Amino acid sequence: MEFNQVVMTRRSVFKFEDKQVSLQDFLPLLTAANMAPNHGLTQPWQFLWLGEQTKSALADYYAHARAFKKYPIDSDEFYVSKSKALARFMAVPAILLVACCVDNNAIVAEEDYAATCCAVQNLLLAATDQGLGAQWSTHPMLRDAAVLRLLGLDPIKMRLVAMVYLGYPFGVTSVPPRKAAENFLQLLP
Questions:
Q1: Which of 117, 135, 150, 180 has the fewest CB atoms in 10 Å of its CB?
Q2: Domain segments of the chain as ranges
Q3: Where are the alpha helices (DSSP H) in 103-188?
Q4: Where are the alpha helices (DSSP H) in 38-139?
Q5: pLDDT of 93-121, one tens digit each?
Q6: Model pTM?
Q7: Nearest to 34 by CA among 100, 158, 118
Q8: 14-51+93-169 — its CATH code?
Q9: DSSP annotation of 169
Q10: Could you tell me if 43 and 112 are in contact, meaning their C-beta atoms sit under 8 angstroms apart?
């Protein structure tokens, strides 16, 4: 696919075919992510491919936060919403977490965060190019120290930047209307 076509057709995909994504399918995406710009070649990212055991362990954190966002705990609606969220999470063919090193120097920390976001965007573009669908989530559980510890990450040294859902798209995702790019350009004297 031509680069501009990849950029223009990349969409957040929310529905996936019932077909697994193999680690082999994922490796070209990882290579693209690893080519993201990063100041001083710090390569501050870490990619965590979730196996079924880890996915199951995280499912309750995910579902609880989704339900809590909408309904009071212990309400009937909360439990129905949590159950649906649990099923949705477990149905995603592949889930990747993207972590970033946390530096004591605020400027370096911001550069590393920005570089890791660039790596995620490269990954999303590569997924589109490979015929995979993806969605970048910044779910609240990414900021939960208990989740980081469950993953074996030190919350002082690492932070989660993205949860990327991967799979083969089910159907065609429509293109939402966007404002013209010129609306975001300011010409300075």
A1: 180
A2: 14-51+93-169
A3: 106-129, 145-150
A4: 52-70, 76-91, 106-129
A5: 999 999 999 999 999 999 999 999 999 99
A6: 0.92
A7: 118
A8: 3.40.109.10
A9: B
A10: no
